[in-house]
User: What shape does this take?
Amino acid sequence: MPRRKHDDLAAREHLARRVRQARVQKGMTQQELAEEVDAAVQTVSRWESAKLWPSLPTIYRLAKILNVEIEALVGEGPAGLSSKEAEVVESWRQLDTEGQAKNGYIGSSTGTR
Assistant: This one.
């Protein structure tokens, strides 16, 4: 069964957001990332604008350079987080409101920590 263009575009957009988020979180410019991954800055720009797919080996290199798990780039979890940080976020999501308040995650009047 052939893939639909929409599915490919949605996946490219998802990866594009994740690469950009992880790059920005690491404090890198597109030029710096391009140099690290041995690509043209225009290529990095095309990855981040969902106009081009990086190859699988390149995704692996991006994850290493950006110090994130491959899952953080292509998966559904929060981008730019280590495995341990993603685990903490997921644990927090599992708590009900009372559990979040009890553990100091939300205040009783403001709804924030």
Summary: Residues 22 and 80 are 5 Å apart (CA to CA). The chain has two domains: 5-79, 82-113.
